[in-house]
Design brief:
By secondary structure, the protein is α/β, with parallel strands linked by helices. The chain has five helices and eight strands. The chain has a single domain, classed as 3-Layer(aba) Sandwich (Rossmann fold). The strands form two sheets. Strands 3-2-1-4-5-6 form a six-stranded parallel sheet, sandwiched between helices. Helix 4 packs parallel to helix 5.
Length: about 190
């Protein structure tokens, strides 16, 4: 059994990853900005899953939020504060929150847990394809996703021999729990009793 930490594990790709690890028998910690929501999603995921409140935009609070975690085999960070923001209409508070979340928050979360990594400990950080393919309104999004690549390079040196990788997916439409999408319409998921 491994211990997996998924920051951004209450929705979207993070929740999917957390569920997969829980289903294979891992002890899983999921973290999201809202502690009550994280606890609720942890209960939905089931097995040995614990929800934690953690806001990457408040890096000074990260170490304390992760204090209960004793060991880490796998760390995945998918969390983002992703709002369209153009240079012409730059919303400074949102830009600062977005960059703090994805750059400073990611770095601090790894730093806070690094001394608890097992010998097989690994990190996967999620950026986004906007680093290569900007679109209208992606000024800050493109910037912080490019920074994730730089962060991975320096972390690979600083926390070696632990493995550090980044994934930069395109926009991913995620369904509400228990639903799937066909042509943009969310439909209930029907599971067979196999």
């Amino acid at each position: 059994m491994s211990t997996t930490v998924v920051i951004g594990g209450t929705a979207g790709l993070g929740r999917f990853i957390a569920q997969r690890h829980a289903d294979r028998g891992d002890k899983v910690f999921i973290a999201g900005r809202d502690a009550a929501r994280a606890a609720s999603v942890a209960k939905e995921i089931g097995a040995d899953t614990t929800g934690l409140g953690l806001d990457l935009a408040r890096p000074e609070s990260i170490a304390g939020a992760l204090a209960a975690i004793e060991a880490v085999d796998h760390m995945v960070i998918t969390a983002a504060f992703q709002r369209p923001n153009t240079l012409k209409d730059l919303n400074l508070p949102e830009a600062v929150t977005a960059v703090t979340t994805k750059v400073v928050g990611y770095a601090e979360a790894v730093r806070a847990l690094h001394d608890r990594f097992t010998p097989v400990g690994s990190v996967v950080l999620f950026g986004g394809l906007a680093k290569e393919r900007p679109y209208p309104g992606s000024t800050i999004i493109t910037t912080f996703n490019s920074a994730v690549t730089g962060l991975v390079k320096t972390l690979a040196v600083e926390i070696a021999p632990h493995r550090v990788n980044a994934l930069h997916p395109a926009l991913v439409a995620t369904a509400p729990a228990g639903r799937t999408s066909t042509s943009g319409t969310w439909l209930p998921v029907r599971r067979s009793a196999a």
